[in-house]
Amino acid sequence: MSINTVMVIGAGQMGSGIAQVCAQAGFTVYLNDLKQEFLDRGLSVIKKNLTRQVDKGRMQAEEMENVLANLTPSTSLEDAKQVDLVIEAAVENMEVKTKIFNQLDEITPAHTILASNTSSLPITEIAAATKRPEKVIGMHFMNPVPVMKLVEIIRGLATTDEVYQAIEDMTKQLNKVPVEVEDFPGFVSNRILMPMINEAVYTLYEGVATKEAIDDVMKLGMNHPMGPLTLADFIGLDTCLYIMEILHEGFGDDKYRPCPLLRKYVKAGWLGKKTGKGFYEYA
Ligand code: CAA
Ligand code: NAD
């Protein structure tokens, strides 16, 4: 199962980072999104990241050009006809994801592996939208992708050992560390992280402390690189809410109930750093 050509679906925060690390590792990459303007935004983030590496003397200008040459923007899923692996990083919504996987199943060659960067949705359910559940797998990168070492790898019920091995090998080629986890809501990362973030929002909602104080307690007291409210803004409040809803629905326990303040912010369109406003404001 050799992987040379990859399509990344979604040129948002995660998709652009995944496309960047794949292109840097020498893979031929199609970066797909719904509109050219979304692709332009994703590609400009990649260029900014690579330019910073060149400015710091960690990458030659020629190498940057080679990395950019590995990237082809795409607004048509039909481009997936030529790929060995698809990594889907569109929004955290089961309907959107199953529709994409259903289409990919029709378009891609029989050998193509279909991976999802979902933060919390069941891989087995996504796989059931295809006629190749044995080739569907979770490949969960962390934000910011170029910096964070972890990739959680999640087998669906039907995923074969061969497919798992191919994805583990590819993860190592990306200079990341694969960790295998079972297919349960939120996997390991978000089952532990997201209730902490939700609790921080409740702490703010109940007036226990200001947002700055809550973040300072966790940064200075627990040595976290970012306070939980800053991290929520960084991840995207819509994504945080989707994940809490999946945990709440998946486990049925009220301890996972999303904080009403989180819902309110998402309804207001205050999605965090990506929209310029969340708990904090961004220039
Ligand atoms: N993209 C690319 N590179 C970035 C970046 C970004 N968005 N942000 C920072 N960097 C790079 C910087 O260029 C810098 O690189 P060099 O050391 O090579 O110069 C390095 O990261 C450190 O950056 P800074 O000095 O500017 O800032 P920092 O030391 O505060 O680190 C951080 C920034 C790495 C983001 C750090 O604050 C951090 O680790 N935060 C927590 C991140 C985290 O918890 N991520 C997981 C989120 S949960 C998730 O992803 C799963 C999910 O499903 C929701
Ligand atoms: P984002 O909002 O930054 O980007 C999503 C992108 O997907 C947008 O550009 C959007 O136009 C595009 N998109 C939506 N529907 C599409 C479709 N049908 N076809 C092609 N493109 C489509 O979101 P993000 O933060 O990059 O999250 C993407 C995925 O990664 C989600 O499943 C999320 O749960 C997961 N994830 C997010 C984080 C994080 O910290 N933000 C971390 C790990 C995993």
UniProtKB/TrEMBL annotation:
Keyword Oxidoreductase attached: yes
Name assigned to this protein: 3-hydroxybutyryl-CoA dehydrogenase
Domain 3-hydroxyacyl-CoA dehydrogenase NAD binding span(s) in chain numbering: 5-183
GO molecular function: 3-hydroxybutyryl-CoA dehydrogenase activity
Organism of derivation: Cytobacillus stercorigallinarum
Recorded metabolic or biological pathway in which this protein acts: Lipid metabolism; butanoate metabolism
UniProt KW Oxidoreductase keyword: yes
Keyword tags: Oxidoreductase
Homology family: Belongs to the 3-hydroxyacyl-CoA dehydrogenase family.
Pfam families membership: 3HCDH (PF00725), 3HCDH_N (PF02737)
Domain 3-hydroxyacyl-CoA dehydrogenase C-terminal intervals: 186-282
Top-rank lineage group of the source organism: Bacteria
EC number: 1.1.1.157
